[in-house]
Amino acid sequence: MRRITLLLTTALASLVLIGVPARAVAQTDGITLGAVALNVTDIPRAEQFYTEVFGLVRTFEFPPDGEDKDLIEIGLGRPDQPGGMSLLLAHLNNDPLPEEKNRYGRIVINSTDARALADRAVEAGATMLRDLTSPGGPILLFLSDLDGFEFEIYQPPPR
């Protein structure tokens, strides 16, 4: 009886030790932190600050080739440092931000399967806020977590 108990305990421990890491890796494969996004009142002013203070450079703008007055969002980064800092500065409208949200924008998470990751987040209690995906473009899904903090799941457009 003692030997059977020992064998069962060893088998169960082996399954736990072998099964958990494999499952955890499969669930997070293809997911990286993409950027932190800040809601700002004046993109050119904020860009000047972050480029002068931190040495960041503009890596993209949306809409592409827009004039500064028409910018909705820009990306700043350090292209000379792969995997380095990435900051998004966005100004989507002139509505005042709620007081509790005035210092936070959103977390951007890169994924190779944005929709599956969003589905998993919703199943875990997140709320889908909006889908800004356009045909042929990147997948842009905005959700809020259990505490109401917004995050974006981004999947690059197909090549």
Largest sheet: 8 strands, mixed
Distance between the termini: 61 Å
Quote the CATH topology: 2,3-Dihydroxybiphenyl 1,2-Dioxygenase, domain 1
Name of the CATH superfamily = 2,3-Dihydroxybiphenyl 1,2-Dioxygenase, domain 1
Sequence stretches where pLDDT stays below 50 over 5 or more residues: 1-26
Shape call: globular
Top CATH class: Alpha Beta
- Element string (H = helix, E = strand): HEHEEEEHEEE
**Mean of residue pLDDT values:** 76
Q: Architecture, according to CATH?
A: Roll
**Strand order in the sheet with the most strands:** 2-3-4-1-5-8-7-6
- The DSSP helix count reads 3
Total of domains: 1
The fraction of residues in strands falls at 25-35%
Report the helical percentage: 25-40%
Helix/strand-derived category reads: alpha+beta
Please tally the β strands and state the result: 8
Q: What is the CA-atom radius of gyration, in angstroms?
A: 21 Å
Task: Produce the secondary structure layout.
Elements: H1 2-28, E1 31-39, H2 43-54, E2 57-62, E3 73-77, E4 86-90, E5 106-111, H3 114-123, E6 127-131, E7 139-144, E8 150-155
Parallel strand pairs: 1-4, 5-8
Antiparallel strand pairs: 1-5, 2-3, 3-4, 6-7, 7-8
Question: How does this structure look, described?
Answer:
- This protein is about 30% helix and about 30% strand.
- It is α+β, with helices and mostly antiparallel strands.
- It has a single domain (about 30-155), classed as 2,3-Dihydroxybiphenyl 1,2-Dioxygenase, domain 1 (Roll).
- It has an 8-stranded mixed β-sheet.
- A hairpin with an 8-residue loop joins strand 3 (about 75) and strand 4 (about 85-90).
- The longest helix has 27 residues, at about 1-30.
- The chain is globular and about 40 Å long.
